[in-house]
Amino acid sequence: MSKGIFVTGTGTDTGKTYITGLLLKKMKESGYSCAYYKAAMSGNERDSNGVLIPGDAFHVKTVSKIDQPLEAMCPYVYETAVSPHLASRIEGFPLEMDIVKENYLRLIEKYDIIVAEGSGGILCPLRYDDEKIFLEDVINLLGLPCIIVADAGLGTINSVVLTVSYMKSRNIPIKGIILNRFHNGDVMEEDNKEMCEALTGIPVITCIGDNYTDLDISGEDIASLCK
Fold first, then answer.
1. Fold topology of 3-225
2. Assuming Cys at both sites, which of 2, 40, 131, 217 could form a disulfide with 76, CB separation 3.0 to 4.6 Å?
3. Which residues belong to the annotated binding site for substrate?
4. Which of the residues 38, 61, 175, 193 is marked catalytic?
């Protein structure tokens, strides 16, 4: 049976896509058949033919070198660089949970492990009209445990503790935290790591520095986090 993990973050621009690419790269190199999935993606650009390209998916595919077709990675792709709920209000084509599930089920029939990525932070609205859908609804629909990506710098204790507290209150399983833009030897960032673990009870499974091209955890270790 296929397994998976969901990558969320403490907010926008914490490096979820960057980390997701490295997770998939490591697992592919370890021999796993793996795929990427993101329910909704906004802020995308068009190619020379005017076709809208899912930028996060393209980055992940390029970094990880997985063989999954780009068009199978994300069912909802928007051009406007705003939250998906507003992008769909501007452009049309609002997210439907049946389509999200249908596309995900196609992947689990074909691949051993799926790494799903969220949009923005845990409270990101994906649709907000006559129907209200938030990121946590997609996590629950897919039935996946989570990894939280956070920036290692100033303010991360607050953002990590608030994110973990909210997710725990909603019974969303959390497997670990990854700190991005981490600098070994930086007193504040080393303390941030310790405090995030102490205040949440969630382990920091790895720390990633600027421009890393690999993870210091094994593909097997990553797979063990999946459900």
1. Rossmann fold (3.40.50)
2. 40
3. 42
4. 38
